[in-house]
C-alpha cells in the first residue's frame, strides 16, 4: 500500500519540533510495511528524506508561507483577499505535486487538517481527512469555512477526528458523522515522558488567551490560600492575557504562590509535570485538550470543567481526575478532594500507562492502516 500524507506542517530536518507527531506516524507506518510519502509546502522545491521518509517539498513563495505558517494564520486567511490569494496559490501548487503522486501509483491520500491540506487533494484516489482542533473550531466560527469544507468532507472516503468534540463539530457544521472507530489523537513518543513525583503544586499548560480562562486557576489558588492551603501554581505558556493575569495575581495577593514560566517547547513543558500534584484545565470548549492527555500520560491528576470540551471525554471523574463546574469554589473543592486521596498518584500511573499505550506510534499506525483499507474498500 502506498500512502501520501498531506500537511502544511512537517519536519524540515531530523530533530525539528514542528510536525513531530506526523513524523512519528510516518515512521510507524513504514514499520508496518506501508510505503509512505509526505507532501508539504516549503521555501525550497525538490525531494528530501527526513528520518527515512521521502518528503516532496512544494515550493511556494515567502509571502504565501508567512500567511499560512500557523493554524491561526490559516484561519485569518479566510478573512482577507490577500489571504485567499495565498490559499489559492498553495492549493494549486500542492495539487500539481499530488497529481504526480497519484500518477506514480499512490493508493490513498491522507490529509492532516481539511484546511489547507485537504482542499489541495485532487480526486482520483481514496481520501482520508483528519480534522484537528484548529481547523475543526474554524467550522464552528466561520460560515465561509463551512461552505469550503462541506463538499470536501462529504466526498472524502473517511473522515477522522482527534477527539469526540471535534467529531461533533464536523457533524454539526457539514453533516458528516464521525463514528467512534475514526476518533483518535495522533501518536506521541512517550518514552521520554516523566512520571510525576508530586510535591510541586498545581500546573497550567496553556496559551494565555481569554478562552483558556486561566484567571479561574488564579482565583482557585487565591481561594485555597484564604482557607489556609498555600498551593503553588506554575503557569506554562504565553499569550495576550499574560500581563492582565500577572496583575490579577498581584491584586489577589498570591504573587508569591504563582510562577509564570512563559512559552516553552513540549519537552520543556513536560518537565513541570514531573513535580505537579494536579493540572488545572480551565479552558472553555477546547477541541483537543492535549494538555490533559499529556498530564495523564505523566500520571498527573487533572481537574477540568464540564464545559471544557474534549477534556470531558478524557479526564476521569474519579481516581486521578475530577470534572466540575467552572467556578473557583468547585475547582478548589476538587483539588482538596484529590489531595486527600492517598492513592491518587498510584491511580494516576495506571491511567497514564493506558494513555501511553493508546498514544503509542505503532498502535496509532495500526488504526490508520485500518482506515486506509476501509477507504480502499469503498
Features:
Rossmann fold; 13 strands; 378 residues; six-stranded parallel sheet; 2 domains; seven-stranded mixed sheet; alpha/beta; 14 helices
Bin the helical content: 40-55%
> Which sequence of strands runs across the widest sheet?
3-4-2-1-5-6-7
% residues in beta strands: 15-25%
CATH class of the largest domain: Alpha Beta
- Residue ranges: pLDDT <50 for 5 or more in a row? none
Question: Would you report the number of β strands?
Answer: 13
Element order: H for helix, E for strand: EHEEEHHHEEHHEHEHEHEHEHEEHHH
Mean pLDDT: 92
Q: Overall 3D geometry? A: globular
Rg estimate, integer Å: 21 Å
The biggest beta sheet is recorded as: 7 strands, mixed
Task: Report how far the terminal alpha carbons are from each other.
Answer: 16 Å
Second CATH tier, the architecture of the largest domain:
3-Layer(aba) Sandwich
CATH level-3 fold name of the largest domain: Rossmann fold
Number of helices: 14
Which class do the helix and strand fractions yield?
alpha/beta
In the CATH hierarchy, what is the superfamily of the largest domain? Answer: Glycogen Phosphorylase B
Amino acid at each position: 500500500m502506498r500512502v501520501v500524507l498531506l500537511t502544511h506542517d512537517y519536519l524540515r530536518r531530523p530533530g525539528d519540533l514542528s510536525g513531530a507527531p506526523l513524523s512519528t506516524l510516518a515512521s510507524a507506518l513504514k514499520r508496518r510495511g506501508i510505503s509512505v510519502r509526505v507532501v508539504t509546502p516549503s521555501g525550497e522545491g525538490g525531494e528530501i528524506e527526513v528520518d527515512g521518509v521521502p518528503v516532496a517539498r512544494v515550493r511556494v513563495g515567502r509571502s504565501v508561507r508567512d500567511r499560512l505558517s500557523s493554524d491561526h494564520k490559516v484561519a485569518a486567511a479566510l478573512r482577507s483577499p490577500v489571504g485567499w490569494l495565498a490559499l489559492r496559490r498553495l492549493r494549486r501548487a500542492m495539487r500539481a505535486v499530488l497529481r504526480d503522486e497519484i500518477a506514480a501509483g499512490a493508493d490513498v491520500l491522507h490529509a492532516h487538517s481539511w484546511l489547507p491540506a485537504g482542499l489541495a487533494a485532487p480526486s482520483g484516489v481514496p481520501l482520508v481527512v483528519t480534522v484537528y482542533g484548529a481547523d475543526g473550531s474554524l467550522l464552528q466560527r466561520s460560515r465561509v469555512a463551512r461552505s469550503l469544507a462541506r463538499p470536501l468532507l462529504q466526498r472524502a472516503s473517511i473522515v477522522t477526528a482527534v477527539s469526540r468534540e471535534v467529531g461533533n463539530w464536523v457533524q454539526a457544521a457539514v453533516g458528516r458523522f464521525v463514528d467512534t472507530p475514526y476518533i483518535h489523537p495522533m501518536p506521541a513518543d512517550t518514552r521520554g515522558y516523566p512520571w510525576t513525583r508530586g510535591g510541586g503544586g498545581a500546573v497550567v499548560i496553556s496559551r494565555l488567551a481569554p478562552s483558556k480562562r486561566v484567571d479561574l486557576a488564579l482565583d482557585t489558588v487565591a481561594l485555597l490560600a484564604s482557607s489556609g492551603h498555600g498551593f503553588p501554581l506554575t503557569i506554562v505558556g504565553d499569550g495576550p492575557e499574560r500581563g492582565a493575569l500577572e496583575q490579577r495575581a498581584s491584586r489577589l495577593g498570591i504573587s508569591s504562590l504563582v510562577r509564570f514560566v512563559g512559552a516553552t517547547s513540549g519537552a520543556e513543558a513536560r518537565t513541570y509535570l514531573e513535580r505537579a500534584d494536579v493540572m488545572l484545565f480551565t479552558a472553555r470548549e477546547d477541541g483537543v485538550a492535549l494538555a490533559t492527555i499529556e498530564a495523564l500520560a505523566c500520571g498527573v491528576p487533572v481537574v477540568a470543567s464540564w464545559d471544557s470540551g474534549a477534556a470531558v471525554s478524557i479526564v476521569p471523574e474519579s481516581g486521578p481526575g475530577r470534572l466540575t463546574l467552572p467556578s473557583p469554589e468547585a475547582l478548589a473543592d476538587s483539588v482538596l478532594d484529590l489531595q486527600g486521596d492517598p492513592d491518587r498518584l498510584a491511580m494516576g500511573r495506571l491511567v497514564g500507562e493506558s494513555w501511553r499505550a493508546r498514544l503509542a506510534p505503532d498502535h496509532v499506525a495500526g488504526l490508520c492502516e485500518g482506515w486506509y483499507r476501509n477507504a480502499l474498500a469503498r
